[in-house]
What does this fold into?
Amino acid sequence: MTTSTHLLRRRRFLPLFVTQLLGAFNDNLYKNAMVLFVVYSVYNSEAEEAGFSALASAVFIIPFFVLSALAGQLADMRDKAKIIRVVKFCEILIMLVGGAGLLLAWQGTATDTLAIPLMLLALFAMGVHSTFFGPIKYAILPQHLRPREVLAGTGLVEAGTYIAILAGTILAGWISVEASAVAVFLIAIVGYVSGRQVPDAPPASEGRIDYNVWRSSIDLVRNTMHDRRVFLAIMAISFFWSIGAVLFIQFPPLAKNTLSASKEVASLFLVMFSVGVAIGSISINAMLKGTVSARHAPASVIAMAVFVVLFHFVCRAWPVPENAELLDVAAFVSQPLAIPLLLTLLGIAVAGGMFVVPLYAFLTTFVDKSQTARTIAANNIVNSGAMVAGSLTAMALTAAGMEIIEQLLVVAAFCLGSAWLGRLLFLAEEQAAATA
It folds into this structure.
């Protein structure tokens, strides 16, 4: 029996795995249903569509930047299982608001003045929900798993997250907006039930919680980043997520305006990305044989940059359609360049998964268990800042008149930054091993 199969049979892992999977599924079903509806049914210009996509990404990410320090403190100083129960109950209330916004949008009632603001409010609240759940889903692993199980558990959590993203993205592209409104509410209820099954996880440390989010954020990042290896891991992960933020912003308007493809095809793009990250997450665990190391990080992200450039050239060579109708999935796949385009997209994602998973495992295993949640929270603060910066960069480039297809080359340049940081981390890792 493999370690992964073994973990999926145990209550110390399975309820957490299911809960985070459902949460990621609901996040992406809701967010993509909202973005695809607005891009394809409300706006009719690449700049407006890219602007809304970037705005939605920023609205979801901002809570991570502001509240991650508080979330990390709570996760380290309170029972993690109890926090999960509270957070998942709040998800039910959030999805009531988000579902109402989707239904109003479907009916065409006050779309700009009420429906879209309600949807963005719920998206912001889901960002808050994910901010408080994020440190727990990684920090609880060393508490419930054995040392040799942590990498496998991290890989399963990452793979499960991206499989959930895949499923939520598929559903958002294929079902109606009113069906999405009902689905997100029901899934939130199921997630709450599974969250109640997570075994107790008593606090690893005691202390006074600083509720001043700005001071605690600055202190948390400063106190966490003094270790060179942790600093490099966090910075490398942040570069990766700034890349991911820009790509996810680009996909819907790129599909509609450059490739003349329907929202189902835009959903297919996100699906391919999610499948690839899941494959990369599992593959790197097999390559490293359970050892947490950044050995393959530089090569992985350089490969990602190469695939981004190839994706750019395939999009540039895409033929201009003969009529104004958007291509459905069948018509899109029948195009001569469709398979090369999807394969390059898959390559981007596989390489990305291979890059980022060992770095998350590093953060949960190379620090004391009493500091794990706060380390993840510090990582979330820096990651979210990088993602907001990526979103703002995409908005600025669009406002400056740069086509989305050309912005892909900016993404490739970001990959080189990640490769450099990954190389520095591996060298620091070897140096620490030599002096141990």
